[in-house]
Amino acid sequence: EEDPCPLGYLGAKGADIQMEVIALDSRDAARPVSDGDGVDIIMPPQGGRVIFLGVRATNLSACAVQLTGSLRDTESGRVMAESRTVNLKPTGDGWGASVDADISTFANVGVCPNNWSGRNLFDEDYEIAVQVRDREGRTAKQVRQVRPACNEPEFEVECRCVCKHGYILGEACE
Questions:
Q1: Which residues, in sequence order, are bridge partners of residue 95?
Q2: Strands 18-24 and 30-32
Q3: How far apart are CA 142 and CA 140, in angstroms?
Q4: How far apart are CA 4 and CA 167, in angstroms?
Q5: Amino acid 75: pLDDT
Q6: Can you say whether residue 3 is alpha, beta or left, with left for phi > 0 and alpha for psi between -120 and 50 degrees?
Q7: 11: Cβ contacts below 8 Å, ≥ 6 apart
């Protein structure tokens, strides 16, 4: 049957989806995330602070991939998540990925203002999860232990203010 996706099928049909977690850093570069890595807390165009979680994946159609990213406070169990439908950009090796230059291809997980976690969002251990679901309903998911960080020098002070435990909306950040 013809794949209606103009970007084509990535990898082998019928094989299990393989994936790796990537995140955008403060220099707008996507990089793989391993257990124990830092992830940058970034000021997006829509305001607040987010962690941009994306994916490299194979053995699925590049089009209409449901991407879900989340950050979990492992102490309280509370979760912030965002889900969106994305097209993965083929990378020429049978894989496709979220695109560095296009933040809409990443889950924009809103983490600050921090009115949800029982501790600071930065320099503490949290858990991220990234899941993909293809048009046939097949899924793959990976979880990583990470340390979010305020790594945008020009926004550092405000980041450490709005992402701290106990921040109150509208509070002045010096």
A1: 58
A2: antiparallel
A3: 7
A4: 48
A5: 95
A6: beta
A7: 18, 58, 59, 60, 94, 95
Helix or strand or coil: residue 70?
Answer: strand
61 neighbors 1 (Cβ within 8 angstroms): no
| In-domain check, residue 2 | no
CATH number for the domain including 59?
A: 2.60.40.2550
- Residue 3 belongs to a domain: no
Give the closest residue to 147 by CA, choosing from 83, 54, 51, 81. Answer: 51
| 8 A C-beta contact, residue 55 and residue 41 | no
What are 45-68's pLDDT values in tens digits? 988 999 999 999 999 999 999 999
Encoded tokens for 108: 């924009």
**Amino acid of residue 107:** A
pLDDT score for 174: 75
Domain assignment of residue 112, given as a range: 9-162
* pTM assigned to the model: 0.95
Residue 76 lies in a domain: yes
Domain count, the chain: 1
Residue 24 forms beta bridges with which residues? Answer: 30
Query: What DSSP character marks residue 154?
Result: G
Please report whether residue 97 resides in a domain.
Answer: yes
